[in-house]
Amino acid sequence: MCHFSRFFAFRRFAQCSLFLILLAASLVVASLQAAESPAIQSSPMSGGDGAVEQFDHNAYSLPLRNMSMTKRLDFSVGNSFFRNPWVVAPASTEARDGLGPLFNTNSCQGCHLKDGRGHPPMGDETPIALFLRLSLPSDQAEPETLEQRGALPVPNYGLQLQTSAIPGVQPEGKLVIEYRPREVSFADGHRVTLQEPLYSIAEPAYGELPNTLLTSPRLAPPMIGLGLLEAIPEADLMAAADPNDTDGDGISGRYNQVWDVRSGTTVMGRFGWKAGEPSIEQQSMHAFAGDMGLTSRLAPQTDCMEIQGCDAFADGGTPEVSDEIADFITFYASSLAVPMRRNMDDPEVIQGAETFNALGCASCHTPRHRTASDAPRAALANQEIWPYSDLLLHDMGEALADHRSEFQADGREWRTPPLWGIGLAQTVNPRAGFLHDGRARTLEEAVLWHGGEAEAATQAYRHLPADQRAELIRFLESL
């Protein structure tokens, strides 16, 4: 009898183990089906034929490898305007004068350090790579204002807090960031302490800020692969949207609809933390206007308000960013290459990719896309790329919510950021932070902040054994 009991106990154990194995396998298959492309990347060429083998602090700063030599000269000229500081007008440096009067930084490189992501300020540092978007509740705005500007400007302050100014002008105020600890526990007893940022504005210089003020911190994102993202067919991105979650998988991505200045129409947004910009060109010119106080033909007005008296100071011409410079900057921003994948044959990386799929991460971080065959530049056309993003808006939960809308994006939605090159982020900038405001100091912290549509994946991560969690991070570091 004792032997029979042991036999049946063993059989039940074997059946249970087999069931768990089959269940795990079915979860992997289901998540692979949910994500249109598998996360098991087949080629190290994340950025297509233009990917580069560069893994040091310059990993984000190289031109597309498949770009012609003649175009590399345009890239170098664009790089000079991206890297070098702009100065106060009038100046002998006529091509780069007109800074301010109000601004956040004096160069593109000031925010996008080495073309990478920025970092939050430490201590009493003046923030450079992190700024604060401002607005009032959208129900106070005329529909036309929301259609063309995306949000309602704050009287006397506009749509962005400018924390620096030229001599003789007061900055709008000081951005103050305080952190409070937030502990997360894992199923195995492991604990991680996150830092939750609290934002406020001290010393407002142009009148009292309204009680209904809405704010949203924004960290400078990496610049790599933007031209490839712009070349993904719009129809492919629209096809992946599921705003009503009709397939019942808990993922309801949708695309933002934003104002395109050049065409004068509403189009799909794909750039910025809330996909609030339709093109690299418009994103770049709005950054000149908002971050540096520089006008261009596409953005002829800066964020300076009438009370601030900016018109009383010398400008750098009309427009300050000439069409020629704007073209060079746009070309440069669309031509930065993506580093190749590393350690793809490492068993831990391979297992981490499978876990990435099994948790459902690929449902939003869509691994693979193909750029349009009729892209405007040959170097960007018909490329198989692995950005790990659907470029759609997703509800990321209350912990990451800014409660500020931008065009169609609501206060809990963020665009899925591409993950390619993320393992080199802190090689390029050792102080780089993750997520929209840099609050996450590590990739694991970034995972743990995910909520909303990603809540189930985050909870599943917290229940993984320590070795599987490490494998997932190893996978992310390989990208």
Automatic annotation (TrEMBL):
Keywords: Heme, Iron, Metal-binding, Signal. InterPro entries: Cyt_c-like_dom, Cyt_c-like_dom_sf, Cytochrome_c_Peroxidase/MauG, DHOR. Residues 347-479 form the Cytochrome c domain. The keyword Cytoplasm does not apply. It holds the Pfam family DHOR. This is Thiol oxidoreductase. The keyword Iron applies. Residues 1-34 form the signal peptide.
